[in-house]
């Protein structure tokens, strides 16, 4: 059954990307500067996630307390510290007490850590690169699962209508009544923080070590597994499937009245065949656009859950923002840089969504419209 559904989705995507659609995509890409920016950002973040073991300067968990809280390039910090007074190499003692004084200690940036280090001396650039894996994979898998549930519910409700439509859409309305973050926290609390460990092919095959040695990067132990917060993926899908259901239902209500659907029904085609061969392919365009927006929304939700400590993954943009809270007044970059990564990713995905919307529906005037 699941394989049949996946086959139908694959055929629907092939129908959506017809030669005319491809021409529209190319035309909108040429006309829109923001589309190029969005695609560049998304490709950069995806490349970071895929090739993290090959490009990260250090292992994300490698600590060096002597290099803790180093600023990023272009910045320096000044911190007042109490130090012991010495004369001729000896500690000064007056009235039986060691004499101390306050001195300003300056910490300068180094090329070894271009984005600085956190409170435990871990390289922030490496953690941002590896954090992309967690956030982006949760966004992709969560969106895929939400789309599978939501599109199935929405097409069923829109095609059959009547009592089926009322029952399914009232269930969707109930889901919308709960704040997404509160519902996600409640579900994680019920199910716990289950994680899925996927072997990293670059590390397990030894290619990462060979490549890093070739480039002169540190050859320390890189994480051998990709750790995915499995509970979070399921939770964000259950929270966001409603949007796919509502969009696909609206499309199904429109498509089911088309003449080709009536003709297929008159020729004796079954309901499941009509939905898979006619309704779904002609409803996939807005679903694809919604999917790009939902990936961004799920990344934000995953970051919020990680920030609050409900993710279970120890390398995540939201988790790193939480770690930097106690250093906000002195080491702002620990929280700010992962936050910038989240902002750039969400902006890039939304720009790609705008590009797809303008290409799939040329009647809408976007940034490159006339």
From TrEMBL:
Residue ranges occupied by any ABC transmembrane type-1 domain in the UniProt entry: 132-353
Coarse class of the protein's main subcellular location: membrane
Biological process, per Gene Ontology: transmembrane transport
Statement: the UniProt record of this protein carries the keyword Lyase: no
InterPro entries the record matches: BP-dependent_transpt_permease, MetI-like, MetI-like_sf, OppC_N
Subcellular location: Cell membrane
PROSITE patterns named among the record's database cross-references: ABC_TM1
Membrane topology label: Multi-pass membrane protein
Pfam families on file: BPD_transp_1, OppC_N
Signal peptide start and end residues: none
Keywords: Cell membrane, Membrane, Transmembrane, Transmembrane helix, Transport
GO cellular component annotations of the record: plasma membrane
Membrane spanning residue stretches: 33-56, 136-160, 172-192, 226-244, 287-310, 330-352
Entries under PANTHER family matching the protein: D,D-DIPEPTIDE TRANSPORT SYSTEM PERMEASE PROTEIN DDPC-RELATED, OLIGOPEPTIDE TRANSPORT SYSTEM PERMEASE PROTEIN APPC
Family in the record: Belongs to the binding-protein-dependent transport system permease family.
Protein name: Peptide/nickel transport system permease protein
């Amino acid at each position: 059954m699941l394989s049949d559904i996946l086959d139908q989705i694959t055929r629907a995507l092939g129908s959506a990307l017809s030669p005319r659609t491809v021409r529209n995509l190319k035309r909108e890409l040429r006309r829109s500067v923001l589309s190029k920016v969005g695609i560049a950002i998304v490709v950069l973040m995806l490349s970071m996630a895929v090739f993290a073991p090959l490009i990260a300067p250090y292992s994300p968990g490698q600590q060096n307390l002597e290099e803790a809280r180093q600023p990023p390039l272009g910045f320096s910090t000044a911190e007042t510290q109490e130090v012991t007074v010495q004369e001729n190499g000896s500690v000064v003692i007056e009235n039986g007490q060691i004499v101390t004084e306050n001195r300003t200690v300056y910490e300068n940036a180094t090329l070894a850590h271009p984005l600085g280090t956190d409170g435990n001396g871990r390289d922030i650039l490496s953690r941002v690169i590896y954090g992309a894996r967690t956030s982006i994979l949760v966004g992709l898998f969560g969106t895929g699962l939400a789309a599978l549930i939501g599109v199935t519910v929405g097409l069923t409700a829109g095609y059959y209508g009547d009592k089926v439509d009322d029952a399914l859409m009232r269930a969707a309305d109930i889901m919308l009544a709960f704040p997404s973050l509160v519902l996600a926290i409640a579900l994680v609390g019920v199910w716990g923080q289950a994680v899925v460990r996927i072997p990293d092919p670059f590390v397990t095959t030894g290619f990462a070590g060979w490549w890093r040695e070739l480039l002169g990067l540190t050859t320390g132990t890189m994480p051998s597994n990709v750790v995915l917060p499995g509970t979070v993926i399921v939770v964000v899908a259950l929270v966001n499937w409603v949007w796919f259901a509502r969009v696909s239902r609206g499309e199904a209500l429109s498509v089911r009245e088309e003449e080709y659907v009536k003709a297929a029904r008159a020729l004796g085609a079954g309901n499941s065949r009509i939905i898979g061969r006619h309704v779904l392919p002609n409803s996939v365009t807005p679903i694809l656009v919604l999917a790009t927006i939902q990936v961004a929304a799920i990344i934000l939700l995953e970051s919020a859950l990680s920030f609050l400590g409900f993710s279970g993954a120890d390398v995540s943009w939201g988790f790193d923002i939480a770690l930097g809270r106690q250093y906000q007044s002195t080491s702002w970059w620990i929280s700010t840089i992962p936050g910038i990564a989240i902002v750039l990713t969400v902006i890039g995905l939304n720009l790609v969504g705008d590009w797809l919307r303008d290409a799939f529906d040329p009647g809408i005037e976007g940034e490159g419209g006339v």
